[in-house]
């Protein structure tokens, strides 16, 4: 029995049927969340599951209120330890979406003023 699924198209991207870690970008924040990092043995099938409102509570809730999202980064062969490392080190900083890159640049360039002593 063949358990491998074929790649699926999400927007303009083709999501491969491989194992690894993936980063999802939400078009609008859902409360504080703007990204989701996940692991799957078959990323294509897992994304299809998320689209149907199952799996991640965050993606299910965002989908339910009409917030669209897309996979922006895949690390083929990444395991659950790598997924946890991205969670702990704020893997969302690796998002390549223009809005995220601009926000990260603004935060780096922000002038930090010393606290006034009084």
Architecture overview:
- By secondary structure, the chain is an alpha+beta fold.
- The protein has four helices and five strands.
- It has a three-stranded antiparallel sheet. The protein has a two-stranded antiparallel ribbon with strand order 1-2.
- The protein is globular and about 55 Å long.
Brief rundown of the structure:
The chain is of the alpha+beta class and 118 residues long. The protein is built from 4 helices and 5 strands. The protein has helices at 43-51, 57-64, 80-88, 98-109, and strands at residues 8-10, 13-15, 20-30, 33-40, 69-76.
What key phrases describe this protein's structure?
118 residues, alpha+beta, three-stranded antiparallel sheet, two-stranded antiparallel ribbon, 4 helices, globular
């Amino acid at each position: 029995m063949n358990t491998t699924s074929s790649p699926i198209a999400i927007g303009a991207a083709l999501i491969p049927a491989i194992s690894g870690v993936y980063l999802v970008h939400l078009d609008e924040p859902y409360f504080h969340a703007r990204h989701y990092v996940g692991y799957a043995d078959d990323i294509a099938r897992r994304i299809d599951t998320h689209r149907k409102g199952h799996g991640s509570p965050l993606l299910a809730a965002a989908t339910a209120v009409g917030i669209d999202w897309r996979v922006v980064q895949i690390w083929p062969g990444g395991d659950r330890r790598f997924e946890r490392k991205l969670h702990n080190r704020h893997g969302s900083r690796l998002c390549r979406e223009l809005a995220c890159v601009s926000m990260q640049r603004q935060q780096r360039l922000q002038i930090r003023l010393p606290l006034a002593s009084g």
